[in-house]
User: What shape does this take?
Amino acid sequence: MCEFIQPDPAWASREMNGARFFSPNETAVTFHYPKIGYVLERKVFDRAITELAATAGAEVMVKARVTSVTFSDDGTVDGVVFRYSGREYTCKTKVVIASDGVESQVGRWAGIDTTHQLREVGICAQYLISNIDIRPEYFDFYFGHEVAPRGYVWVFPKGDDIANVGIGIGGAISGKGGKLAIDYLNEFVKRKFPEGKILGLVCGAVP
Assistant: This one.
């Protein structure tokens, strides 16, 4: 990154010094590596990158919804059609980046099969939780079929007593026995952080 832009310390909420891995019986293995990584403050980072792009000459159009792609005479994608402020526009470009997530609609418009079988994805849920007892300098990972079948739970500190606490489980497992990823996460949070205060929730799928 430093080749193109100078990182700003404000982009990171924590500097991390290692990770802890917990087995199903919660035996921990700790790896201590000073300054091994950072926990990104994503909203701050995204805004900063957007500002840098605009300063460099990019045209930023928020709340613009792409509705289709366009093709050149040789069949390659050469642009997009989008709606912005109630009007439809066409933008021709050398490169179209389909960053619309799992099973990308833009990719399908371009003729790419972006579908996944359930066994090929992880179903995820994540809380932002405060008022919890954590080791703020370590990433924590919890494994075990009862905790997160075909996946794991993560605890990524964002402060001394606040963290992203999330889970990913196998897509083919989700819903079996009436339990979804969020149900496993709720069980973990209730057991590990009973005094925690939930401040936010995001859910999604990861290939």
